[in-house]
Amino acid sequence: MTGVTDMTDVTRVIRVLLADDQHLVREALAALLGLEPDLEVVGQVSRGDEVAPAVTALRPDVVLLDIEMPGRDGLTVAGDLTGVRVIILTTFGRPGYLRRAMDAGVAGYVVKDARAGELADAVRRVHAGGRVFDRRLAAASVSTGANPLTGRERDVLRAATEGGTVADIARRLHLSDGTVRNYLSSAIGKLGARNRAEAARAAEAKGWL
Amino acid sequence: MTGVTDMTDVTRVIRVLLADDQHLVREALAALLGLEPDLEVVGQVSRGDEVAPAVTALRPDVVLLDIEMPGRDGLTVAGDLTGVRVIILTTFGRPGYLRRAMDAGVAGYVVKDARAGELADAVRRVHAGGRVFDRRLAAASVSTGANPLTGRERDVLRAATEGGTVADIARRLHLSDGTVRNYLSSAIGKLGARNRAEAARAAEAKGWL
DNA sequence: GGTGTGAGGTGACATTCGTCAGGGGACGGC
DNA sequence: GCCGTCCCCTGACGAATGTCACCTCACACC
């Protein structure tokens, strides 16, 4: 309304930083948030390792973080950010992701399947000091429970998804063949699967990978 | 070709229909396209099987179609649409998808990694009668070549990705165990893989699945 | 009519997998 | 100090997998 530059006005606006590897989606989200008068997208980055520098440079109030990004994983990035509120914004409604996000101290978790208004709302609530987590996902997280896999079991299972034989995995992880088979067998048992492929699918679906 | 009323240049505005299963992305894309004065998003659907009815009801000039949608596959939907220009808009830059899209007669293929201006441009060019295909993807498509898998090999490989043993797959497809093993072996050979998991990954990455 | 290709099948074989029963060592908690 | 857990390894065994040779049948194409 006032055409005059008013610096106090700036403090009213919530400064948002967007991190998503898909240009089009990022720009589109910026356009969407730009429709809200009290929100301002002050920056956009496409890689995980660009988030921290951008935060220092732009001093946003809230960061919207995708999980799957080149350079650095969104959940890892979130764990290291300080002095800014973080909302995870991702395609994947995997219970394990939510848990990891909460452990990383994020203030919100919104899936890309949410309705348009929810995102702006989440930004406002989080900026006001609240926490916003997808309800269905929170419920699923409780029923799913904690990740039953040990660190090594996860490593081996993750390596198994890349394909290759037991010998390949063993070489990649500097283990003996038998050890790899044991970890795989153990993981298969814990996940109620019938072979490594099924186990990998199950673990991935729950965000335990 | 319908010889009915040709609506000369009634509309200067290009009518766009959006089909994407993720609410937030869809709304965001609508906001982005809404910024262009010559484009108008006249409708949005979230499922593949809602596209055809929406086209009849809303008569858009251009349809933006995601590939992975519940209800019906975007590529399949594209093949059945008539009287409207189709642009595939998807996350996946898989050569095989591009090929299938071209076979389905679509007018454009844009990946979600594209820059914001490219989408609006693509809509305009396509509406004007042109064709717009992602350059890098087109190149990859040429080098990748055609899908070497036979129909049955694809079926078996697809079933294999769901997990389960050979016997399970055989039961699901009403085949004998030996036949399933033969198809898998053949597919593994053609794809240069070393087991079914590697083969499935390779096929999926190229969009041959 | 011959030829090629894809679908579907059988039987045999070597290899790989998944399982089980052990054997260590390191570390943290009560 | 003992117990539990995770790490790492070995060896053995049966079941599942991947490969190969070879078979019929249908269909399209020249």
From TrEMBL, chains A, B:
SUPFAM superfamilies: C-terminal effector domain of the bipartite response regulators, CheY-like. GO terms for molecular function: DNA binding. Keywords: DNA-binding, Phosphoprotein. One of its GO terms (biological process) is regulation of DNA-templated transcription. The modification 4-aspartylphosphate is found at residue 66. The keyword Transport does not apply. It comes from Nonomuraea wenchangensis. It holds the Pfam family Response_reg. Residues 142-207 form the HTH luxR-type domain. Residues 15-127 form the Response regulatory domain. It comes from the Bacteria. This is Two-component system, NarL family, response regulator DesR.
